[in-house]
Design brief:
Helix content is 12%, strand content 31%. By secondary structure, the protein is of the alpha+beta class. It has one domain. The longest helix is centred in the C-terminal third of the chain and has 12 residues.
Amino acid sequence: MTQKRSYKVLAAIPKHDGSGEWFMKVGSGFTNRDESINLYLDAIPMGQPGKGIRLQIRELDANDIARRDAYRAGSTGPASASPAGPPTSANESIPF
């Protein structure tokens, strides 16, 4: 079986001072059996009038994969549980 390649979809966002641009991750992509790529967008950036929207697709590198694996393991990011753990009943989450 062929290893599926994973991609990140980036949007070029112009800097406010006009000195260049920065890239915002707006989605991900995965290869199919026929080597075509499916893109899944989490956000659709607004383009500048007359310029449109420029998206860039980059293959995930080692840093991206390590960050993704740590996030999935729950060691970082907003999805990790609080130190006290989740509430055990609905009433425990009410602050009064």
